Amino acid sequence: MNSGQFFNNVPRNVTILAIGVTVILGIFRLIPLLILVWIAAISYIILYQYRSSKNTAANFVCLDCATIHQQTSCPKCGSKLKKLYSRTNNYGI
Q: What secondary structure does DSSP assign to 44-60, as a single string?
């Protein structure tokens, strides 16, 4: 895993930060603040997921000429052979 991929995962980073703050607040037994940290973290993650899902559309990569596009057929060569495009190739054909 490269470092850019690690830092671009906002929900995981917010969770790690909330866990760190939880440990620090737990040492001093500041339970009301601890609850507020988790409410804020979960709210931020929900808003981030909602906002990011509205802004992105599915990208495809043409299996014939490797053009990335959003149309049903490739704008460059007209082929309909495609798969979902992901920089990390985490989701399948």
A: HHHHHHHHHHHH----E
